[in-house]
Design goal:
- By secondary structure, this protein is of the alpha+beta class.
- The chain has a 6-stranded antiparallel sheet with strand order 1-2-3-4-5-6.
- Strand 4 and strand 5 form a beta hairpin.
């Protein structure tokens, strides 16, 4: 959480439910994209892989690199690592049901009131993943923020 932000979730179980739902939705979208757009017979060693285990979603997309999104329970955040955009932390905006880049929240000094935060689609977890897939492959995953 941002240093001044109040807790977003009712309890840790609620955090896990929302975070797991998000990570599973991303996993499903990436797996569907891979199935629809990559031919395993032609790829040989460069077969994209997606794995979700123990709160960590790993997406290997050769030759572009590996993306990792993991749960950070103590902070109620999702942490993102991308070979394109680098590391980021995301906090949940419950009203809009989106994970928002924590730097945007911190920079705007919202005191945890996400209604005061002005952010774009690319400031959301789904938005940055859509953008990076568009940049690499010319197609969006169709994820909502």
């Amino acid at each position: 959480m941002s240093p001044s932000a109040p807790p977003t979730f009712r309890n840790v179980g609620h955090y896990h439910d929302v975070a797991d739902d998000t990570l599973h939705a991303i996993q499903d979208a990436v797996e569907d994209y891979i199935e629809d757009n990559f031919d395993a017979a032609e790829a040989e060693d460069d077969i994209p892989e997606v794995n979700y285990a123990s709160g960590v979603l790993t997406m290997s997309l050769p030759p572009h690199g590996t993306w990792v999104i993991n749960k950070q329970t103590p902070n109620e955040q999702l942490w993102w690592s991308s070979p394109l955009s680098g590391p980021r932390r995301y906090e949940y905006d419950e009203e809009k049901e989106r994970w928002v880049y924590s730097r945007i929240i911190d920079d705007q000094g919202s005191d945890g009131d996400y209604a005061k935060v002005d952010y774009s689609e690319e400031d959301t977890l789904g938005g940055i993943l859509n953008k990076e897939f568009e940049d690499l492959f010319g197609d969006s995953l169709g994820l909502e923020g």
